Amino acid sequence: MDELIKEINQFRDERDWRQFHNAKDLALSVSLEASELLENFQWKTSEEAIADDLENIKDEIADVMIYSLMLADDLGLSVEEIIRNKIKKNGKKYTIEESKGKYGKEGN
Amino acid sequence: MDELIKEINQFRDERDWRQFHNAKDLALSVSLEASELLENFQWKTSEEAIADDLENIKDEIADVMIYSLMLADDLGLSVEEIIRNKIKKNGKKYTIEESKGKYGKEGN
Amino acid sequence: MDELIKEINQFRDERDWRQFHNAKDLALSVSLEASELLENFQWKTSEEAIADDLENIKDEIADVMIYSLMLADDLGLSVEEIIRNKIKKNGKKYTIEESKGKYGKEGN
Amino acid sequence: MDELIKEINQFRDERDWRQFHNAKDLALSVSLEASELLENFQWKTSEEAIADDLENIKDEIADVMIYSLMLADDLGLSVEEIIRNKIKKNGKKYTIEESKGKYGKEGN
């Protein structure tokens, strides 16, 4: 992961792009890329979307992750740490006993 | 990264949740979580949003990444590979020569 | 429509809220409300979502439209005019002859 | 408004497109169009975005409204009624006394 973040930052710095990056527009960009990912599934089933353009799905998942990693890095966050913390929180919110095989809408 | 994906899958499997996960709803969920991240910045500057609730920003970045990692894993994709491929593509689209210090809207 | 916009503006002005409204955050808010609408359909079929919470679906469609109307009004746009213009554009892009019974992904 | 909805439905019916429209994909489409609207503001101030491409902003607001109107119509809803109801709810949630000149993040 650290290696990936280094490569992403190298890409930004070689182009002097960090000056344009602020947290609000990076969060906005994560949302825009997530929509471009979702667009692959518009009017389609999962199977149809995957059959139609898995290459674009790959690229859009990558874009969502790249912007998320840049935002986390600019905020001085360790992605692994915030993911582990969130999994822990989710584990308390959705205990195995209460959640096994059950799926509500709230956040899961 | 592989370790994180293992922990995320363990979380799903302990709860028998994979049966509910399909690519379309996972992509939809990435988009919903990206909006919850963006909501932190609604009517605010980057600085105000970070000062107001960095904890929630952390959690929402984590949720975006967790859903993206689940989707990638369900599609049999290596996240590191698709990110590296996308960085390569971006490098060809935005050459250092042409892009240094310049920032257009198209996709960057 | 004009009557609705009047009522929405009256709501804003009674609370002195227009000072907080700028086009970027209004567009951001349209997107956030659209996600809250979409959240009703997460992990669900259309039928399940409608059965589960039609009331919330109504409220979120309304919120999307309210923010869209505020943005259009702040930009001095006639909503009816921009909708009619867009329908005309779409009619040229998707002629009846070529589009009848056929549905692509591009924008329709 | 009724006139607009008639024209939108005529557009759909001339192309036999209603068969493809379901509430989940229409809600998804509202969200995608809202993102295309928001994309106009990526890395920009409100003023820069408006100066750069007001025409596209007009078209995207129109697309958000067209999909919202189709969804509402397919659900048998009166757009004016759901908007008026939501304004009423907001008026109770944000009383003039408590809200005048104050702006929180929760939903306003």
CATH class of chain A: Mainly Alpha
Q: For the record, what is the CATH homologous superfamily label of chain A?
A: MazG-like
- Kindly report the CATH topology of chain A: Helix Hairpins
- H/I helix tally of chain A: 5
The amount of beta strand of chain A, in percent, is under 5%
Distance between the termini of chain A: 25 Å
Secondary structure class of chain A reads mainly alpha
Biggest pleated-sheet summary of chain A: none
Which geometry of chain A do the CA atoms define? Answer: flat
Task: Tell me the total number of β-strands of chain A.
Answer: 0
Oligomeric grouping of the chains = homotetramer
Q: Largest chain interface and its two residue counts? A: A-B, 64 and 64 residues
Number of domains of chain A: 1
Helix content of chain A: over 70%
Structure overview:
The structure is a homotetramer of 108-residue chains. Chain A is mainly α and 108 residues long. Helix content of chain A is 72%, strand content 0%. Chain A has a single domain (2-99), classed as Helix Hairpins, CATH 1.10.287. Chain A contains 5 helices and no strands. In chain A, helix 2 (23-39) packs antiparallel against helix 3 (46-74). The longest helix of chain A has 29 residues, at 46-74. The radius of gyration of chain A is 17 Å and the shape is flat. Chain A starts with a helix and ends in a 9-residue tail after the last helix. The interface between A and C is small, with 9 and 9 residues. Chains A, B, C, D: InterPro entries: dCTP_Pyrophosphatase, DCTPP. Chains A, B, C, D: This is Nucleotide pyrophosphohydrolase. Chains A, B, C, D: GO terms for molecular function: nucleoside triphosphate diphosphatase activity.
